[in-house]
C-alpha cells in the first residue's frame, strides 16, 4: 500500500516539474517578445484576417516574378497551360515574412499575373494545395502555419479552402471532423477524394508529428470517417512524398520527424521507407475502409530525404525532385545535404529509377 502511494507521488511530482518548466519557458518567451515589441500570434492572425476582409473586388494584373520564398505550393492549371503558386515564407536570418499572394504563370506567354480576391486565406507556409478539373477548375487547400517575424511564435491552421478558377473566388469550407491544426502534411486527390497524411504541430515549446489519414469527399463536401485496419502503419512524419496511382492507391515515401534521444535533447530522423494505402476489399463495405502495406521498391536506391517535390505525370509515373537530409547534427546546429536528382516511380512494379537516365 505504501509503495503504491509512493509511486503515485512520484508521478505527481514529475507532472508538477513539467508544468513548472512549461511556465518558465512561457514566461521567458513573453519577456523576449516584449523586448522585441512583437504582438501575440493570435492578435497577428486577427489583424491579417481583418486585412483580407477589407478587399472588396477581384483584381488581376501582370506582375514581376514572385519574390524569393520557400514552403509555398505550386500546381498545374487543370485546363490551361498555366502554373499556379500560393503563399510561402522568407527567412532572412533575422526576420520571417509569410505570404498569401496568388500567382498565375502562363507558360506560352512567359508571363506572371497576380490575382487578389476578397475574403481569402491569410498568409501561410507548409500548407498543401491540389487542382481538380471539376466545375471549370478548382484549387483545394488545407492547413499550413504562420510564423511570427521572430520565429518565437507559430500558428497552425486547420482550415479547408476552395478557389473557383472560373469565378476567381475563395470559399472556406466548414465541414466538421477534419484534421487537427498542422503543417508539413501531404495531400493528394484520387477518385473525387482528398487524402491528407501526416504533418506536425509545433508551438516552439513542444512538438508533435502525425501519421493519421483524413479523407474529404469532393462530392458530399464532408470529411469521411475512414477506418484504417491492421497494425502496419507508417511512423509519424512530415515533408514526405505522396502520390496517387491511376488505380487509386496512395503511396507515401520518405519524410522527416524528430525523436527524443536523451534528456532535453532530440534528433531528426529522415525516413527511407515506402507504404501504400489501398481500400480493404476484404472488409465488406470497403468504400471507407483502408489498409497500409509496406512497399520495397526495386531499381535505383535513392538517399534518404524529406521536403521532396512530387507529382504524377500523364504517363502514370510519379516524379520527385530534390529534398534534404540533416547531416552533422549536434545540440546547437544542423547542416543539411540537399539533393538535385530527378527520380521516377513506376506504380505497376513498383520500381524507382533516375528519370531521363539512358540506362
Automatic annotation (TrEMBL):
SUPFAM superfamilies: Kelch motif. It holds the Pfam family Beta-prop_FBX42. Residues 1-11 have a biased composition (Basic residues). InterPro entries: Kelch-typ_b-propeller (IPR015915), Kelch_domain_protein (IPR052588). It comes from the Eukaryota. Transmembrane segments: none annotated. Residues 1-26 are annotated as: Disordered. Residues 12-26 have a biased composition (Basic and acidic residues). This is GM24640. The lineage of its organism: Eukaryota, Metazoa, Ecdysozoa, Arthropoda, Hexapoda.
